[in-house]
Design a protein that fits this description.
It is a single chain. This protein is mainly beta. It is built from one helix and 27 strands. A hairpin with a 5-residue loop joins β4 and β5.
Length: 408
């Protein structure tokens, strides 16, 4: 546990920010309490009916039992040839799954359950994304990434600069002890998108909206999913890291009634198709008719959302990852409805300074006030162009970071 002096992070939105300022909240007050869990990254805790938090993880280890890596390097250099050679390394991407037990964010018991191997071919990496534990079934999604830039490891100019498609979900009926693989593959993903040759995808690294314990606050039992991506109207091919795991142009919304029979069936999904003239959301069963929920060219990225029952608001966190290895900006939006309109609470420049995969676990939302905990990892690249990264706010680090905050 780390304690530091409370402070309010200044909100400094760029002049072209498309979101109106919230009339209810003006920023985030960091209360000066932070966790210190030494595990990997890609931590997205979801609150299950048994009161535990289930999460994916990768690029690290939980305890001394399980470690995994969803990508790889060969001979110190990640090259196009080594990634697409079809050899041993190209077929052995792994992802981890773990459970977090306890009610105190600063005193959780972290238990690794295991790791799972999944072929990323014809892409270079296969990473965890949307995870949901509902009615005893754990749905675990993975997405693909194309190669690093050809730069020596440790001095990378870009980190996974091309976003690949969302593959689909594997299932567990025993909380991660055993798994049934997705029927989909990177070459034939759930929504039939491709990220090859730098082609843009709309549902790149999706995440479930956190509706609370076992989806208790879900409207009509729907599982809603937010997908970061882009389309050809926005995508400039000359910008090498424009559409990556942490930098995108748009956010898309889709929903499904989750069961083992529907979760990997594209026909079971509804896709947000914009709003009619009166502001009512339109939904379609045709993926090609999907419309962005939000868009801000070159200023979006990883996106997560959580329903805050005390405030009766959805809180959305978006990280603009820039060139994928430099400073990253994170902003917080609020809305009464998932379909918007969305308003800006705060825009935090250089949060972390390099915080990513930022989310709000619903289990740690205060029932009687506007405080909650922000979960993220940070500072995967600690040196770029000889400039050392700073740790702001205190406690930001590679691993599982939980920061206590309240709305101003």
């Amino acid at each position: 546990m780390l304690n530091f002096g409370p402070f309010i992070w200044p909100s400094e939105p760029p002049p072209d920010c498309p979101f109106p300022i919230s009339g209810d909240w003006k920023g985030l007050h960091f209360l000066g309490r932070c966790s210190d869990y030494n595990i990997g990254d890609t931590i997205y805790p979801i609150w299950a009916a048994d009161d535990a938090l289930y999460t994916p993880f990768t690029e690290g280890e939980v305890g001394e039992t399980f470690s995994c890596s969803s990508g790889y390097v060969q001979g110190g250099v990640a090259t196009e040839a080594s990634r697409f050679s079809g050899g041993f390394l190209t077929r052995r991407a792994t992802t981890g799954h773990a459970v977090l037990r306890g009610s105190d964010p600063l005193d959780l018991r972290l238990e690794a359950i295991g790791t799972h191997q999944a072929d990323p071919y014809p892409y270079g990496g296969r990473y965890p994304c949307g995870s949901l534990h509902h009615r005893g079934v754990w749905y675990y999604g993975t997405y693909c990434l194309s190669p690093f830039a050809e730069t020596p490891y440790g001095k990378m100019l870009y980190n996974w600069p091309h976003l690949g498609p969302f593959v689909g979900f594997r299932l567990s009926l025993d909380s991660g002890q055993t798994w049934v693989d997705s029927p989909h593959t990177p070459a034939r993903p759930l929504f039939e998108e491709t990220g090859l040759c730098g082609y843009p995808v709309k549902i790149g690294a999706p995440h479930f909206v956190d509706f609370g314990k076992d989806m208790a606050h879900s409207p009509d039992g729907w599982a809603s999913i937010l997908g970061p991506g882009s389309d050809l109207n926005f995508y400039p091919p000359e910008n090498f890291a424009h559409l990556s795991w942490i930098s995108t142009d748009q956010v898309y919304l889709l929903r499904v009634l989750p069961t083992p029979g529907t979760i990997n069936d594209a026909a079971a999904y509804d896709f947000f198709a914009g709003c009619d003239p009166s502001g009512e959301p339109r939904w379609t069963k045709t993926f090609g008719e999907i419309k962005p929920l939000l868009e801000w060219q070159n200023n979006m990225g990883c996106v997560t959302a959580t329903y805050h029952p005390t405030l009766d608001r959805y809180l959305m966190l978006v990280t603009d990852g820039g060139n994928t290895v430099g400073r990253m900006n994170t902003y917080l939006l609020e809305s009464k409805h998932l379909t918007g309109p969305w308003k800006l609470i705060t825009y935090m420049i250089n949060f972390g300074e390099q915080a990513y995969f930022v989310n709000i676990p619903s289990k740690f939302i205060s029932p009687d006030r506007s405080s909650f905990w922000i979960c993220y990892s940070g500072n995967l690249a600690t040196d770029w162009n000889g400039e050392k990264i700073r740790v702001i706010p205190p406690g930001s680090r590679y691993g599982l970071v939980l920061q206590e905050v309240e709305l101003v």
